[in-house]
Amino acid sequence: MINYKKDKRILIVVMSAFVVAFAVTAIWSFVVYKKTNLIEIIKSEINSQLSQNYSLFSTPKNVADLKNKDQIITGNFIKESEIVSLIDDFEFVSDKKGIELRIENLNQKKDSVLGNYFELNLKSSGNYQNNIDFLEFVEKLPYSVYFESVKIERVNNSTNSDLYNFNLLIKILSI
User: Do residues 151 and 166 lie in contact, with contact meaning Cβ atoms separated by under 8 Å?
Assistant: First the structure.
């Protein structure tokens, strides 16, 4: 006769061990899951605080960067207070180049495309190369300068055949 009692006991012990192992694994998984969630919450809080602290630390740097960018942008525009100095520079360079310069018109205007600007009508008379040098000086100004028109006229004079008249209409962007 086969002894089923002994096999039954072994089966009950093995199943009990399996149930205990399953219960321990389930409890362990639940504990690990809870700890992982807690760790994720703490990580997100730390990241949030770090980003706020970074914002606080980077704000002065951002302000300084914005000031530098503003200075670069506005540096290309002439201020109303600088126009007299610019005219003095025109006169200085024209005297240095040996040309006669007349500023016939200076108006502050506003345009829908260009915005605020100064319009200058400059007339110069002198040697061709010296007029070209003056024209290059105007072109290399540290402002946004637009040449509306440039007219060059040779003066027919028997005593001085190298005399040219330049008529420049320029626009200089302003703030």
Answer: yes
Residues 6+ apart with CB under 8 A from 99: 124, 125, 126, 127, 130, 131, 134
- What would the pLDDT profile of 29-86 be if each residue is shown by its tens digit? 887 788 888 888 888 887 777 776 655 555 666 666 666 666 666 667 888 888 899 9
For residue 13, how many other CB atoms are within 10 A of its CB? 10
* Residues facing 102 on adjacent strands: 123
DSSP state of 159: S
Which positions ≥6 away from 87 have C-beta within 8 Å? 103, 106
Task: Determine the angle formed by the axes of helices 83-97 and 128-139, rounding to 10 degrees.
Answer: 150
DSSP 47-81: HHHHHHHHHHHHHHHHHHHHHHHHHHHHTTSB-GG
* CB proximity list for 155: less than 8 A, separation 6 or greater: 125, 163, 164, 165
Q: Which residues, including other chains, have CB under 8 Å from residue 166's CB and lie 6 or more apart?
A: 122, 123, 124, 125, 131, 134, 135, 150, 151, 152, 153
pTM over 0.85, yes/no? no
The Cα 166–Cα 154 span in angstroms is 9
